[in-house]
Amino acid sequence: MLKVKNLKVGYDNVPVIFDVSFEVREKEVVSIVGSNGAGKSTILRTVSGLLKPMNGEIEFFGERIDGLRPNKIVERGISHVPEGRHVFGKLSIKDNLMMGAYIIKSEAEKNKKLSEVYEIFPKLKERENQKAETLSGGEQQMLAIARGLMSNPKLLMVDEMSLGLAPLMVETVMQALKYVSSTGLTVLLVEQKVQEALEIADRGYVIQNGRMVIEGTGEELMETDIVKKAYLGL
Amino acid sequence: MLGQIISNGLLMGFIYSLVAVGLTLTWGVMDITNFAHGEMLMLGMYSAFWMFQLYSIDPLLSIPISAAVIFVLGILIYKLIIKKVLGGTGLTALLATFGLSMFLKNLVQYLWTPNYRYINGAIVTDNKIVIGNIILGMPQVVAAIGSIAMTLIVIYFMNKTKTGKAIQATALNRDTASLMGIDTGKIYAITFGLSGACVGVAGALMSSFFPIYPQSGALYSILAFVIVALGGFGNIKGALFAGLIIGLTEAVGGYFLGTQFKYALVFLIYLIVIQVRPKGLFGW
Ligand SMILES: Nc1ncnc2c1ncn2[C@@H]1O[C@H](COP(=O)(O)OP(=O)(O)OP(=O)(O)O)[C@@H](O)[C@H]1O
Ligand SMILES: [Mg+2]
């Protein structure tokens, strides 16, 4: 459903992503793993339209989406949960979720989405009228993911959801993602925590210094020397 | 006597508040310094004046007209100027709007002369409300009520409507807001329009008891900058209360210290508050 071909992206004309190609098929969980500064977030920001590619193509359901503005890309069905959560701290939890459903016109459909995400994340419902900034880091991550689900996306992209979370919390968030993917949603994960990300992925890519170095199923990748040496410390 | 002074100060304070509410939308919420805010107010006054002069429409009735005119002007200012300099440093927007402010003042002076204009014979003119030994001018009372009403409308809009919340989200984090599907360019334009509508309303309300001339917005714009900082950036209720404080300070200070010192006192109060609460009275 998402095809990225020969992508080159940079900041101020200095490229940091060189000739990256990858693909996400319907109902898959795909992980892109790599260390700090490898270019993972840059790729997601380009897919969601926050950055313009210097070169290459991005196709979603066979149509070019590179060059579209972010709000148009959300309307196509891609939701991007940015790194560092970025919940709207001064807005209530419920208003954060409603912002996630900004593109949905019908009130009935919004409320239906709201009760769906409250079912997945019951903690959020208990505190729906509190400001988002009062949530703990892990809870904010839940909120960010829940907010990302509110637009009823076809593809959910999550950037570094384990960032700053205790192992137990990482486990909880991973479970939540597994659950949403079991409902048929396609998921693209970007992670430094290689093991966790590859465990839940159908397929994965390893990125180093702005280039994809290997790809394969989650299990295959965990068996490769590159991943074992560079990321799993084996 | 003091009752009279306090009443006058409060009435003026409500108008200051409305002008400051308009400014806090662009300066406080969107973090764009619009030095042409006072000139938008001045054009709001002129639009009420010309409605009266050319079509005999009373300033009270031209409130929605001048609100609409300055709403559109706000959107144009955003689209033609602010949008072009938004990516640059804060200084770029500052200089661009400073230039715009000079341009508008000169343009108005060229088109309509630097002369003071007055609206004579508005519905409210020469009416009074007497409560005990306090006499309130009807134009001032109506202006205060109108300002309160418009401020409440803005507060409602910002906190209860989808677009108002999208403005808040965009102010908190523009990129993340756009990831929600919010057209942030449109949100900025609407915010400028709303800011314009505030001074459009304020201008029409003030036009029946203030002289109208090219410089007539300048003082209120400076006061509005002080009020926004005093009330806490981007805080609409803060702007409302800070406006009242400034109105009172000005009236009471002017009475006890002489009118030449009233603004010195206003800035003194500002400096003291900012020492104690750097983010303003109601700052985040
Ligand atoms: N706004 C920016 N301006 C300039 N360079 C940037 C900017 N953002 C990222 N970079 C650079 O681009 C490269 C890729 O950064 P990116 O954030 O995509 O990495 P990442 O893989 O997401 O890293 P992390 O795991 O730390 O989140 C890095 O060298 C980084 O310094
Ligand atoms: Mg990153």
From TrEMBL, chain A:
Task: Read off the CDD domains from this record.
Answer: ABC_TM1139_LivF_branched (cd03224)
Residue span, ABC transporter domain: 2-234
Query: Which SMART domains does this one have?
Result: AAA (SM00382)
Residues in coiled coil: none
The terms under GO molecular function for this entry are: ATP binding; ATP hydrolysis activity; branched-chain amino acid transmembrane transporter activity
Q: Keyword Transport on this protein?
A: yes
Q: Which SUPFAM superfamilies match?
A: P-loop containing nucleoside triphosphate hydrolases
Biological process (GO) annotations?
L-amino acid transport
The protein's UniProt keywords, in alphabetical order, are: Amino-acid transport, ATP-binding, Nucleotide-binding, Transport
Concerning its family, UniProt says: Belongs to the ABC transporter superfamily.
Put simply, this protein is called ABC transporter ATP-binding protein
Q: Which organism is it from?
A: Sedimentibacter hydroxybenzoicus DSM 7310
Automatic annotation (TrEMBL), chain B:
Its name, as the record gives it, is: Branched-chain amino acid ABC transporter permease
CDD domains attached to this UniProt entry? TM_PBP1_LivH_like (cd06582)
Can you provide one Gene Ontology molecular function annotated for this UniProt record?
transmembrane transporter activity
Listed PANTHER family: AMINO ACID ABC TRANSPORTER PERMEASE PROTEIN, BRANCHED-CHAIN AMINO ACID TRANSPORT SYSTEM PERMEASE PROTEIN LIVH
**Which Gene Ontology cellular component terms are annotated?**
plasma membrane
Give the GO biological process terms.
Answer: amino acid transport
Compartments, record wording: Cell membrane
Q: Which UniProt keywords apply?
A: Amino-acid transport, Cell membrane, Membrane, Transmembrane, Transmembrane helix, Transport
- Pfam families in the record: BPD_transp_2
Q: Which residues cross the membrane?
A: 6-28, 63-81, 93-112, 132-158, 187-206, 263-282
* Membrane protein topology class: Multi-pass membrane protein
Please give the family membership noted in the entry: Belongs to the binding-protein-dependent transport system permease family. LivHM subfamily.
Instruction: Quote the InterPro entries the UniProt record gives.
Output: ABC_transp_permease (IPR001851), BCAA_transport_permease (IPR052157)
Specify the superkingdom: Bacteria
